[in-house]
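Researcher: I need the complex structure. Ligand is pyridoxal-5'-phosphate. Inputs:
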Amino acid sequence: MVPVQLNESANAALDREKTSAADSAVLHRHLDASFLSLAKGEGSYLVLEDGRKIFDGSGGAAVGCIGWGNQRVAEAVTRQILDVPYCPTIFYTTKAQEDLCRTLVETSNGHMARAYIVNSGSEAMEAAVKLARQYYLELDPPQPQRAQFISRKQSYHGITLGALAIGGHAARRAKFEPMLMKNVTQVSPCFEYRGKTPGESDEAYVERLTKELDDEFQRVGPDTVCAFVAEPVVGAALGCVPAVPGYFKAVRAVCENYGALLILDEVMCGMGRTGTLHAWEQEGVAPDIQTIGKGLGGGYQSIAGVLAGHRVVDTLAKGSSVFVHGHTYQGHPAGCAAALEVQKIIQEEGLLNNVQELAPILSNGLVEAVGGHPNVGNIRGRGFFWGIEFVADKETATPFPPEDHVAMDICEFALTKDYGVGVYPGGGSVDGIRGDHIIISPPYNVSRDDIQRPMAVGLSGGRAAADEEA
Ligand code: PLP
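Model: Output:
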């Protein structure tokens, strides 16, 4: 059974508007695919070269958070580039970098001591794991035997070799498996829809997962583990899956018990996406090291970061005082200026209040619009970070075959001329743990009217309520 009635004529129209990658000089991810050509961003909308408007219901992969075409950010970046376009961080710093890092430390409720600015989430993860290792080398007395990491199955922490090795994303790892570091093992994710047994309470589920983690520490040798790595709300890998209450407190306790660090990857779910600046604030735990990314610069520049807690920073300060890591473009002034302005806008315009206020409209609306569809297995998320998982059979939660590319089809369907809504695909049940999903993650300043647009698509074909002139 197909999950949606694809609107053939609209899809054909969409194809005509696409630019083929076959003749392109770009090494696109799909060499034979075709792409829509973006001309402009305006608030919550993207404008194509042919003038067609698309409601940006996901901000790319939950990157956009203040919408597009923001004058303040553009001016801040322009000013920065004219003043100091590049900063060799071995000798120099910039006001933009200092102000951004101070803001990040000051908004961490006292948990974080320093921030480290890089250019992508993968770079942030690479830095985070090296920082964890270096922490143990500089402890007094040092613990050089700690070089092991425990993460979770079907997790995604980045695409570079180190970050890929930390993650448990089977499909993205497969071709590179022989090249990945071997000192990483994985336990089950906290995934209520697919992981909890019928009738199992939250407490019992947490206890079971905690035991699995504890057993893994014991199996690999508890004094060899640097850190447990997890995403507070799993983004791209599973489709906006929050943990059940108490899970993060319980895994934190296991880490404490074995003297290991907790690294939380908030590249996707952080910087306000779930309604609080950090997703961990809703879990009642704080990490020792945290990665941030997408919402930090809201897509205006390529920027990500690592936040290091006091324990880590104090240890390095008392030790070598040198973090043995660095990139030519770390702390890039334009990135820092953009992120600083984006974060100011979020604060000054009270955008997290908007997320909290409108989140129920989004979540309830999605449930009402498509929750009853026979191929919608589960709708979950937090704040402005919602995932819909599609299944071939609702009763058994059986995923569609990955080669059917159901999530991709649904995204194309939502993009068609009639609807013009951008949502983000994920999935392919490569290991049976998950189905196809789409992510809906609008900008924090979306209007009350526009937030209805993803719901207007529905899943039954036909024309959406959304008019084209939005
Ligand atoms: N960590 C998480 C949780 C992510 O979702 C991603 C990207 O999707 C990354 C790390 C890697 O970030 P980037 O693609 O910027 O390298």
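Model: Summary of the prediction. The mean pLDDT is 92.
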